[in-house]
Amino acid sequence: MTYYSMPLGYKLVTSLAMAMLFGCSADGGSTGAGAGGSAGNNGTTTGGGGAGGAGGNVSNVYQPVTASNQDNIYTLQMGPIKLVVDASVGARITEFSYDGTNVLTGPEVDTNVAPPAHNNYGSTYWPSPQSSWYANSNWPPIPAIDNQPYTGSIDTSTKSIQLVSATALIGKFANSQVTVTKTLTPVPESGAIDITYTLTNISTSVSLTVAPWEISRVRGTGGMTFFGKGSGSVTYPSGRDTASFAVTDDNSGILWYDFAPVTANSKAMADGTGWIAHATADNLLYLLSYLDIQSSEAATGEAEVEIFTGINGDYVEIEPQGPLTAIGPGVSLNWKVRWKLRQIPGGTAVAVGSTDLATFAQQQLSQ
Predict the structure, then answer these.
(1) What is the DSSP annotation of 150-169?
(2) Which one of 8, 20, 78, 317 is separated from 288 by 20 to 30 angstroms, measured CA to CA?
(3) What is the CATH number of the domain that holds 268?
């Protein structure tokens, strides 16, 4: 076992630096604000940074910080918060827990037996749109990105974990070659873990146009998913269970999805405001923040926020996406999502339109 520990000397943060969002790198490597953008001479295009700077008095409860691995299993521990990654299965995040309670589902929850069987669990990364994966189909996920082994390492100075995929092909772009890197960095002063996804075009001649996409599966029963309302309305691809699957607009600027079992695979798509929250039956709040994009920046047939509930198990997929970006040969697309996990205060109503729950989520975003 490899094991590293971070010093305890973090000062408490008392001022708000909310949602610093980073845009593309320009000639000479300078960075400007905004979404997506063109690649600079340094060969990197940045698709956005996660939100959530320091704010309020953040307790030192998120200490100590340790990073370790046992063979293919990599673990970040940050006080009561634990994140576990299985490098042998697409660098899949299999656990995000608070005091031992995991908000992510395991393979046993997915009853689907079609290849790849029982694969819809934990949290992973895909390029978007889904229609780009293969020349003539859009399933299953690209194996080298989604479920084949990654090579892992630990940075002893930052206690970050880095995992790198083998070379993958995105079928819509003939002769394309890409790799995916996932970097998980503890941010104890905000009680957060930043996950940076880097898709690198290692081709010498093929250009790609894709968006970043994170997919996290949480248990549906007893769960409530909600997010900031962006422009436009919620849309539903055909075939959904119209009786049981719907997103509710309470006219407060937040959209709500109250889980119910469905009789048909069902998905909702919407423009958001750079964050998604999910309250669990265990009274935990799973909170994701990332670069807010305009609806016009989303990949064709996709959206900034997507929520999926299927017939093959008790789980909900929470799916933020970044901006559609052109990635030339030798260029990388970086996209950051900030993860937080909090105990919901006692007495807080977990229900559509809950002002207390929405206020609590916004408070945690500001940390």
Answers:
(1) EEEEEETTTTEEEEEEPPB-
(2) 8
(3) 2.70.98.10
